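Regression check, WT7 case 669:
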Amino acid sequence: MSQERITSLLTEKRSYLPPEHGKSAAWIGSQEEYESICQHANDDPEGFWGARAAQLLHWFRPWNKVLQSGSENFEYQWFVGGKLNAAYNCIDRHLINGRRNKAALIWQGENEMNVRCYTYQMLYTEVCRVAHALSSLRVRKGDRVALYMPMIPELVIAMLACARIGAIHTAIFSGYAEGGVLSRIQDSKAKVVITADAAMRAGKVKPLKANLDPILEKCPSVAHVVVVNRARMENVAMKRNRDVWWHDLIDDFTLDADFPCEPMSATDTLFLLHTSGSTGKPTGVMHSLGGYLTYAAHTTQWVFDMRDDDVYWCTADIGWITGHTYAVYGPLALGATTVMFEGVPTWPNPDRYWRIIEKFRVNIFYTAPTVVRSLMRLGVAWTERYDLSSLRILGSVGEPINPEAWTWFHKYIGREELPIVDTWWQTETGGAMIAALPYANKLKPGSATFPLPGIDATIIQQSTEEDGEQEQRGYLVIRKPWPGMMQGVFQNPQKYRSYFERFGIYESGDGARIDEEGYYWILGRIDDSINVSGHRLSTAEIETVLTAHPQVGEAAVVPMPHDLKGEAIYAYVTLHEDCPWSEELRTDLRNLVRRDIGPLASPEYIQFVENLPKTCSGKTLRRMLRKIAGSAYSDLGDTTSLASPAVLPAIIQGHQNLMAGHPEQYTDA
Ligand code: WT7
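Current build output:
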């Protein structure tokens, strides 16, 4: 995070009290109530979580033990002995509790006229059919099913069909390109992949099935590919005996065929989701059924103060954890109405979100700071023409929300009265950890406020020797286990342990500060991750792609501050001898990353350098490179650890040239 943004967060002094109207009906209606629940959850965590799990979910069989701790490997098992099914909790029980004809899922297609709405009864029918269909492809309990799909209802149906069978779904964001998809399918050893012919994106047809075909050559685990016909593309290559159209497959199953829910153990894995790790290889985060679903329902209810007649919209793509927890599992477990949008906020006009809010009378709207920043730039004329008066609560996730974006969101979308719940969490945490409760906590723009009840967060101040320099940093850690925490890293126990090794408790990888009133201010990643538009990317993964180019010697990738994206990617690249740099090479390198990982990872700037700054022992001084990328030349710290200090002026000069010469040229939309 840039120095400037940190400073603006540090100097932010305003605060906003929760609205009076709505307090009495709220799940948690005051700061005192919040504090007393925290006290209780702290005194008796197992009693607290056990009560929430019993209130929020239907259990086929109750658990014997709320929490089982394996002392050695930081392994925690939640609701041991309990039996349940996620599809039962998200659908079946609502058929008999009065919500049968309630809208479960309202889908807005990219085309304004294209709307689909599923009641809980309709969702049940479709999920049963798809469960039968997957079962006919021999998908069984514990098998992995990869979902490389756009934002269409079939994605939600496929997730719940897997859950019904007890198969483990593993979603792959549809914006990922070859390398990202390949590593995820290979790591999970998926038996079936579900995809679509193409995704619709800003009026364009982006093929998915055709991307997948060359990848599958290297994925021997995949026996079948199910293809949703979304874009009516012609000439979609279908491999005999392997590929099948979704509509053909489910056609064999009648509308009245129940598919019984597999009674799963609470400690079985519900899904796998890969996130960018500290190495070049993505981390396969595993979430357990009982703990995750309890935590998803629990946080959705309290953080968004969910009521039965609310229309709730989380704008995140379901390919990310936010979409899993807050577009699908949390709201459906509560029997809520969840909105899903296929398109992007700016196409055909930058008013799509506001149109949808007006059209469906959305009450709760959860989005990301990067979206707020990009819409803010386009002016209030796009918001003013819509009736947003149905809104009751706003939410933010993915990165710290800068006070400027907060203020705009509050003023123009929240009519200066709605609470904005800033929610800090991670793929690994399953759900929100540090977040405001809308009718309880006073807000401070840019702060995620306090840890939720039962979440034992703290900050460890430690001087570390990073790049040979002393630095004071506050590590954000969680001391006690919680039900939403990841269950493990798929087939990589060592990686799982690495989250706990430094402090003996869960280390988030973020830096943070707690102010005098106990408010948490998240300062960004401490490890080698970059947060682009609220999405975590690994520097090592991008460096691996760059150095695969035959002319590239070394690459060092660092974050740089960016007005819209929060952070952007800045790459320093050295070339082999006799390889001259050129604009063409720069374009090639960007395309390489784009093709291999996806457009999101494409470097904003590539600076060719003669040498990288190194210590005598040969370690690259990344901290210095970060400072230079952020133009903080005067803040380079102790340069005496450099093996040859002479390399610095050249790098700084090169950075200045790049900034002056090619201002927007490398911007990646
Ligand atoms: C990282 C997690 C689950 C959220 C979606 C991204 C950053 C997330 C906030 C926030 C400040 C935030 C952190 C975190 N982050 N939310 N409200 N304030 N920073 O999930 O890809 O697992 O990334 O996103 O740096 O570690 P993710």
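Comparison notes: The pocket of WT7 is lined by residues 275, 321-322, 397-400, 422-427, 448, 508-510, 522, 524-525, 531, 534-536 (CB under 6 Å). The CA atoms of residues 67 and 73 lie 15 Å apart. No diff flagged against the previous build.
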